[in-house]
Amino acid sequence: MASEQSKPQGxxxxxxxxxxxxxxxxxxxxxxNWPGRxxxxxxxxxxxxxxxxxxxxxxxxxxLITGGDSGIGRAVAIAFAREGADVAIxxxxxxxxxxxxxxxxxxxxxxxxxxxxxxxxxxxxxxxIRQVVEDLGGIDILVNNAGRQTEIESLADLEPxxxxxTFRTNFFAIVWLTQAALEQMPEGGVILNTGSVQGFSPDASxxxxxxxxxxxxxFTKALAPQVAERGIRVNCVAPGPVWTPLIVATMDExxxxxxxxxxxxxxxxxxxxxxxSYVFLASNDGRYYTGEILAPTxxxxxx
Length: 303
Hints:
Layout: H1 17-24, E1 62-66, H2 71-82, E2 86-91, H3 95-107, E3 112-116, H4 122-136, E4 141-144, H5 160-182, E5 190-194, H6 207-227, E6 233-237, H7 245-250, H8 253-258, H9 271-282, E7 293-294
Parallel strand pairs: 1-2, 1-4, 2-3, 4-5, 5-6, 6-7
Helix pairs in contact: 2-3, 2-9, 4-5, 5-6
């Protein structure tokens, strides 16, 4: 039997800051607008700033991570940089968060690039890839991670504008970025898409978001055999609940307070706990994987 000292982090209240916040009766967040900012996240998320240790698994690679300013994107950026990759991030308007991510990338001794703009615009997607190739000297890894969600009470509340925004940001942008990246990506390149447990088991309040995630899962599987002959791998990471600014910026107080309680661990994951999935799939360790969906959901998909 494992001792208390050897328990995985997060299984006890002492290692779970969100659980401590709930127990104290304090609000677990402060109001934010989409896409959310790390400075407004209470308790703060763990992106691996103090814990992630690299092993040169991505040495010399050049990666682009969309939504890399915060949440899962920041954790992946930190991990990739410590694994030896130069890292570009694309972000919407969270300049301070983007600068903080860049600080960690550069502290790891790698070149960093932050590109601001709206990925729901096709021309901007192509410009992002152009800048990455020009500034970093190429692109070996594309991580399609940026996304948006909005809760609704019923289908009648789903306005055409919201439906289009969600699909343009979550799915159309992936198609556009991938098209442009494939024009530049060499043999051995990797495309990683961020899916979600919502793509398997949708929440009634996230109809349009869940639909985009299901589309991403299918896109991953459909694209993989198309580019296999070029030696390019396409995979998807489909997390369960993860503690990020997007959650507090798009959910009501009741949803935030209970967020992650349906997982086996009774808590959401920290971004640092999801980043190793991306490292594995991006590195030579995952060379046999393509068209796969890796689902670190805290047991939600097994119930």
